[in-house]
Amino acid sequence: MQIKDHKLVGVKYDPAATIGKEIDPIFIVNHFTSGYSADGAISTFKQGAVAAHLVIDRDGTITQMVPFNRRANHAGASTWMGYDMLNNYSIGIELVNLGGATVAANGDLIDEYGRKVKNPERWVQGYQKNAGPSVKFWESYPEAQINALVEVTKAILATYNIKDITGHENIDTRGWKSDPGPAFPWSVIRALFRSSQQDDEQPHPLTGQTGTTSTGVNVRGGPGTNFDVLNVLGAGAKVTITDHADGWFKISNPLTGYISDKYVKVV
Question: Which residues pair with 92 in a beta bridge?
Fold first, then answer.
């Protein structure tokens, strides 16, 4: 699969109602549509302000609705790796998927529209932090849909300087988005991203950049809260970034250690 003039070659292009300014995408954000069909998502994007760059149906059919170098309103209030308002920096991919379902008293799975799930064997149990305290069931992503997503992701990684691939649930600052959910094949997608970084044989995209802390933040001995706190930086401290992985920046100035990327705005 190839990209020409910021559109996938051989893929239907059906423009969204709202296509924004030119952007230089550095992130991919994955979503689920919370709907029954691709037609429903496409119709919504053709009528209002909300849109994504791509819609991928369960059978792998891809529809592009916004060129990759133009802003699409898919991320809302968001932050990731020190960047705010991810609509200005990201490519949004919507996968047709109902999302979560709960178990009724009689044992039936009930989707978010109050309807009985027709194919419960395709749903997987999992916990999502923004979906409430209880474990729910989530619609799995069919093989054809995952294969299409893989090919799309490869094409985007080969064309743009993508710094990371994430999900709406990770970037949402309101704390209520749960997509693409526990059934999403993160291991497959993260492997693609790691491979693209190794193939480039270039320093990490953030290496050498500086950031500013948005609040007081712990500097730890490793990339995780299980590592000891070495020191604390106050709000407004400037740091030099030497690496980034799994939500943590490695810094070398003014202190050497690791800090959560949630509290740093990249300059």
Answer: 29
135 assigned to some structural domain: no
Q: Are residues 42 and 164 in the same domain?
A: yes
**140 has a pLDDT exceeding 90:** yes
Based on the fold, state whether residues 160 and 260 are members of the same structural domain.
Answer: no
pLDDT at 208: 67
Q: Which residues pair with 243 in a beta bridge?
A: 250
Domain count for the chain: 2
Please state the pTM of the whole predicted model: 0.76
CB atoms within 10 A of CB 10: 9
Scan for tokens 């799309």, then name that residue.
152
**Burial (0-12, 13-18, 19+ Cβ within 10 Å), 29:** buried
- Report how far residue 179's alpha carbon sits from residue 186's, in angstroms, rounded to the nearest whole number: 12
Do residues 180 and 219 share a domain?
no
For residue 131, give the nearest of 103, 100, 93 by alpha carbon.
100
> Which residue numbers are catalytic?
94
What is the reported pLDDT for 207? 60
User: What angle do helix axes 143-159 and 186-200 make, rounded to 10 degrees?
Assistant: 20
If asked whether residues 248 and 154 sit together in one domain, one would say no
Q: SS3 letters for 75-131?
A: CCCEEECCEECHHHCEEEEEECCCCEEEECCCCCEEECCCCECCCHHHEEEECCHHH
- What domain range is 252 assigned to? 210-266
